[in-house]
Write a structure and sequence with these properties.
Blueprint (H helix, E strand, L loop, with lengths): L1 E10 L6 H12 L8 E3 L30 H15 L2 E3 L3 E4 L4 E8 L5 E5 L21 E3 L2 E5 L8 H9 L4 E6 L4 H18 L2 E8 L14 E3 L11 E4 L6 E8 H10 L4 H4 L4 H4 L2
Parallel strand pairs: 1-2, 1-10, 2-3, 8-9, 9-10
Antiparallel strand pairs: 1-13, 3-5, 4-5, 5-6, 7-8, 10-11, 11-12
Helix pairs in contact: 3-4
């Protein structure tokens, strides 16, 4: 089985209202083939909506929780878009306010009106300033032709998360990210490569990028679709990537059969060898 995936890196910019934010999303989707089965957007892609406030330039880190005010509009828009295009959209992440605090939540729209979500389980230290709390579930999603898990930015740097997903049957990990330095971007990117090799699965990485004058932190990175660094893929494991520093889309076709064959007969069979010596791990 072959599937097509698009990753939409998203550039920070100022908006007057939620409608202009929607226009930017729709403009990006002009580059997404209708034949793509899955579309990934970046972590906290709603961050630019803070610029719709008149006193935006006076905001502090804690004011980022105001993103939660846009949640209903965000859900309605992406649910409609997913159904109209008949595509599964992993709409990056946004702030989900609750009585306990704010989750950094990735929402999945299945193209049929259903909405599922993954709450970030390991928040980056800087996120604590937004009254952010951690999710407690590492579930896989059986939506469309593949099984996948979601690792929001820092989560891809925690090896146990990807290992759990792979043991639950995941073929792909979708990794939306937002890193405020190039160091952060490369931590996420290198860990995405490592998780792909360790578990012999695909990782799709999609960052928020760009800069806006004011309190919103800059975003760094480029999108990539990554596979195990082994035959039949590229030598460096990068199946497709973009070098653009602006909003753009990268699309690739991925074979599940090649993945399963690689797990059995690849040069490095880490998927099975990671648990082959459980006896010494316990020591």
């Amino acid at each position: 089985m072959t599937i097509k995936i698009s990753s939409c890196q998203f550039e920070l910019q100022k908006f007057d209202n939620f409608s202009s934010f929607k226009d930017q999303i729709l403009y990006a989707f002009n580059e997404v083939p209708l034949s793509s089965d899955y579309v990934l957007l970046p972590e906290l892609l709603t961050m630019s909506l803070l610029t719709t406030y008149n006193n935006y330039n006076q905001f502090t880190e804690k004011d980022k929780e105001k993103l939660g005010f846009f949640l209903d509009d965000y859900l309605e828009f992406f649910n409609n878009l997913s159904q109209k295009r008949k595509q599964i959209i992993i709409a990056g992440s946004t702030i989900e306010p609750t009585s306990r605090g704010n989750y950094n939540t990735s929402y999945i729209f299945d193209g049929e009106g259903n909405v599922l979500k993954h709450r970030k389980t390991h928040i980056f230290p800087a996120e604590s300033a937004w009254n952010t709390i951690e999710g407690d579930e590492l579930e896989i999603f059986k939506i469309g032709p593949v099984i996948f898990g979601i690792a929001i930015c820092y989560e891809i740097e925690i090896p146990e998360i990807a290992h759990i997903y792979s043991r639950k049957g995941a073929d792909i990990i979708f990794c939306p990210s937002y890193t405020s330095s190039e160091h952060g971007f490369w931590r996420v990117r290198h860990c995405a490569h490592a998780r792909s090799i360790e578990n012999q699965l695909y990782v799709v990485h999609c960052p928020t990028i760009g800069e806006i004058q004011g309190p919103i932190q800059n975003g760094f990175g480029t999108s990539a679709i990554i596979g195990p660094a082994d035959l039949p893929w590229t030598k460096n494991g990068v199946i497709a990537e973009t070098t653009s520093k602006s909003s753009t889309v990268v699309t690739a076709e991925l074979s599940l059969e090649e993945l399963y064959v690689n797990r059995k007969t690849g040069t490095a069979t880490t998927y099975k060898d990671r648990i082959r010596r459980k006896d010494i791990y316990k020591l």
